[in-house]
Write a structure and sequence with these properties.
Rhomboid-like fold, mainly alpha, 9 helices, single chain, three-stranded antiparallel β-sheet
Length: 220
C-alpha cells in the first residue's frame, strides 16, 4: 500500500513541515556531493551509533555533545528511496498535525518524537555498531498523532494486485493501524537478525510517542 493523499484540508500553510522537507533535501544534497571519506565522517559524527552512545553514556554522561546525534541523525538519509519515502509521508500527514498544533509546537513535537524513537532503538539494540539515520522515527510520531487526531479521515491509497493496481480510500485508523502492525512485526523479526539496517523499533517508539504526546499539547 502506498498513500497518495488524505481528505482533511489544512487551514494554514505548514511552513515548518515544508522547512523540514527542504532542510532534509539540502543535507541529502550535501551527502551526494561530498567525498566518501567526508561522508563517512558526517555519518560517524551526526549519525547515532547505539554502541558508541552507550559507551559514552557510561564514561561521561555530562558530555552534551554525546546527545547531539539524538537530533542530528533525524536529518540524514541513506539513499534516494529513504529520503523520498520519508518526506512523502511527512507531506501527506504532517500538514494536518502542524495545523492542529501550530507551527512552533509542531517543530518541538517533531523533534521530541524523533528523540524518543532514537532512545527506544538504543534500548532495544544497545550493542549495534550500525549508525541509525533518517527522519522516520520523528515522522512515525506524526503518524501516531494523526491516528489519534483524525482516525476517521480517508487516505487515498495505491493498492497493488500482482501486476495491476488500484486506488482506494482507506480509513486512517485502518491504514495507520496496519502500518504500525507491520513495523511491530518487522521489529520483532529483527530481534533474531544480526546487522539489520532498518531501525524498526525507532518506528514503533516514535509512533507510540506521537500518540501520547499529541494529547499533551493544546489544540490551536
Amino acid at each position: 500500500m502506498f498513500p497518495i493523499r488524505d481528505n482533511i484540508p489544512s487551514n494554514s500553510t505548514p511552513f515548518v513541515m515544508y522547512g523540514i522537507i527542504l532542510l532534509n533535501a539540502f543535507i541529502f544534497y550535501q551527502e551526494m556531493i561530498i567525498s566518501d571519506s567526508e561522508l563517512e565522517k558526517m555519518m560517524s559524527f551526526s549519525g547515532l551509533v547505539p554502541f558508541d552512545f552507550m559507551q559514552g553514556l557510561s564514561a561521561n554522561p555530562a558530555n552534551l555533545f554525546l546527545y547531539m546525534p539524538l537530533v542530528t541523525n533525524l536529518f540524514l538519509h541513506g539513499g534516494w528511496l529513504h529520503i523520498i519515502g520519508n518526506m512523502w509521508y511527512l507531506k501527506i500527514f504532517g500538514d494536518n498535525i502542524e495545523d492542529r498544533m501550530g507551527h512552533g509546537i509542531f517543530f518541538l513535537f517533531y523533534i521530541l518524537c524523533g528523540v524518543v524513537a532514537n532512545v527506544v532503538q538504543i534500548l532495544i539494540d544497545p550493542s549495534s555498531h550500525i549508525p541509525t539515520i533518517g527522519a522516520s522515527g520523528a515522522i512515525s510520531g506524526v503518524l501516531g498523532a494523526y491516528l489519534v487526531s483524525f482516525p476517521s479521515a480517508k487516505v487515498s491509497t495505491v493498492v497493488f494486485l500482482f501486476i495491476f493496481f488500484t486506488v482506494i480510500d482507506i480509513p486512517a485508523l485502518l491504514f495507520l493501524g496496519l502500518w504500525f502492525f507491520m513495523q511491530l512485526q518487522s521489529g520483532a523479526a529483527s530481534l533474531n537478525m544480526v546487522g539489520t539496517n532498518v531501525a524498526w523499533w525507532a518506528h514503533v517508539g516514535g509512533f507510540l510517542a506521537g500518540m501520547i504526546l499529541v494529547n499533551l499539547f493544546p489544540k490551536r
